[in-house]
Amino acid sequence: MSSFGQNYRVHTYGESHCKSVGCIVDGVPPGLRLTEEDIQVQLSRRRPGQSDITTARSEFDTVHLQSGTEHGVTLGTPIGLLVQNKDQRPHDYAETDLYPRPSHADYTYLAKYGLKASSGGGRASARETIGRVAAGAIAEKYLKQAYGIEIVAFVASVGKIALPFAEEEDEVLGKEYMNLVNTVTREQVDKEITRCPHKETSKKMEETIRAAKAKDDSLGGSVTCVIRNAPSGLGEPAFDKLEAVLAHAMLSIPSTKSFEIGSGIRGTTFPGSIHNDPFIEGKDPRTGQDTLRTSTNWSGGIQGGITNGEDIYFRIGFKPPATIAQEQPTARYDGSAGVLAAKGRHDPCVVPRAVPIVETMAAIVIMDMVLQQNARKQAASLLPPLTHLPPTMVLPGKSTVQAVVNGKDVGAVQSQKVGEE
Ligand SMILES: Cc1cc2nc3c(=O)[nH]c(=O)nc-3n(C[C@H](O)[C@H](O)[C@H](O)COP(=O)(O)O)c2cc1C
Q1: Does the C-beta of 69 come closer than 6 Å to ligand 1?
Q2: CA 264 centroid distance within chain
Q3: EC class of this enzyme (predicted)?
């Protein structure tokens, strides 16, 4: 189906060349100041035609709020968001009436529905992601105001050009890469048209994308995303582990091929003695309260499916776009052999435009988990305070945890006081 999320639920609609695309988003808390400008920022970062290394389809993707707000404030009711498709050229796709594009979704859509949208990628088009980006921009605003959460994604590789993930063999991930993960801002990311915030690497990426484009070819790449200031305790212990839901969200973005949390596949080559994240005494960066921190963060901020308060970071791999103007031998729908040189305006590499899609999908996931955890904490807060707990349930030491253990306190609790009145 076309919905995602439980407590913050997004339903997207629209195809590549229909009248409009958009979403209905349910679960936005009432009382959030919200205007179209708040949402437009991320849509404009996603829009096509931003530079000569993205598709030439020119859309401004102006968003129109349809419902759910009054006088610039959310009502708590479903929010409808609409973006008109303006620069449609369905005739560009005449060849795909004869050929299913190799590695695109033409054949599988036909297999599933028995018919296909007459032009473009239908629902498989990246135009579908407009609804997600709009819904995620609202979540980002709430998360920033309520928790100071910030989400930043950046391009980590294009084809064979990559950031230095590690300088030394024995490093799980290198200092330069982790420094970007820890400190990079959206302003730094947007300074480069590739959205790789490392000038030298970005220049090489630009060159390689332009060279692929000149050969009517395309390139894949990867995007790293970091979520800062998320409270501990988000995520569910079994099927909705936070990394599982993040992977679901990210792998639902068109063109994605892989998802790695924290140290990812590289981390699997190290022993536990190097890969473990030892605990240290520290302060919660949001609340300033004493808490346990970790001296490294190869877990990517999630252990047992639940946030530990450290930065959450992950990397997503995107394949080269399927539609290329270069001649490709392939079969027509009728089985006869032919050669397809696909016309139309297409991205030579999707990763620069994927950055805001990744950020906003991450925001949707965190928003959903925040609402879920807050419902649990609120429910627990209505119970009479717990007394006479066995000593094994009482944590020693002075660290604080965001836990649901004290009937009165729904926030961080002083652990040694649990069970005392
Ligand atoms: C931002 C973005 C832009 C995209 N642009 C194109 C494109 O111009 N041409 C194309 O063939 N695929 C493009 N795609 C990928 C297709 O939407 C996707 O490959 C296709 O639906 C097949 O699905 P799959 O690759 O996820 O299996 C784009 C994806 C994203 C995220």
Answers
A1: no
A2: 16
A3: lyase
